[in-house]
Amino acid sequence: MKKIGLWSLGLLGFLFALGFGKWAQSLFVKSELMHFSVNFPSEGRAETLSCCNVGGPWARTYGDDWSDYPEGGLLAYGEEGALVVDVGQQGFLKRTLQPNYISISSHWLRNVGTQPYRIRLEMDMCDLEMEWLTFERAWDQAAQSSTRYIEPGDTFNMDWFFTVPDGQRSQAVICDGELRVLDAETGDLLTDLPVRIVNSGAN
């Protein structure tokens, strides 16, 4: 009986962990802490490496079947081309404690080109109050540019935090914004990624 009880507790713990993980992932992807990754340059804007030459998670995920880079890069959970945050799917605690505070976090901004780049970032988010945060030391916040060259295959990190005014939260589309990655030296656009904040629960 004791062994059966231990097995039952173990099974319940496993199911709880599995369910919690799925719940947490759904929140991270859609509503509370959005993680994403993006490549630069996009195909057609500059010469790029093949996926297998870049290596890392790209080669592990796609292998020989993937030969180019989609416009705007690739999101961490496989959705290409746009970053959508849905405040209508926030959990109870988030709705209670920080309903208007939104964060998006880059797994990486990866140089998939054949040359090093210093990058400048532009985040156009409909004049929402916004903060920038990075663990990168080679970052000039005033110029919103990296101060080091990002070598082919190397990455850069940046997180953003937005505050949505109470009056805008009830709108179905709160903001149609965009992240742009530019060559800091020439000003050329390397890649862009639509960033949308919506409320699926709006009337």
Strand portion: 25-35%
Largest sheet: 5 strands, mixed
Helix content: 10-25%
Query: Roughly what is the average pLDDT, rounded to an integer?
Result: 77
CA distance, first residue to last residue: 54 Å
Provide the gyration radius in Å: 20 Å
Helix and strand sequence: HEHHEHEEEEEEEHEE
**CATH architecture term:** Sandwich
Annotated CATH topology: Immunoglobulin-like
Categorize the overall geometry.
globular
CATH secondary-structure class: Mainly Beta
In total, the number of domains comes to: 1
Number of strands: 11
Question: Could you please describe the fold and organization of this structure?
Answer:
The longest helix has 29 residues. The protein has one domain: Immunoglobulin-like. About 11% of the residues have low confidence. The strands form three sheets. Strands 1, 3, 5, 8 and 9 form a five-stranded mixed β-sheet that branches. Strands 2-11-10-4 form a four-stranded mixed β-sheet, with no helix packed on it. The chain is globular, with a radius of gyration of 20 Å. With 203 residues, the chain is of the alpha+beta class.
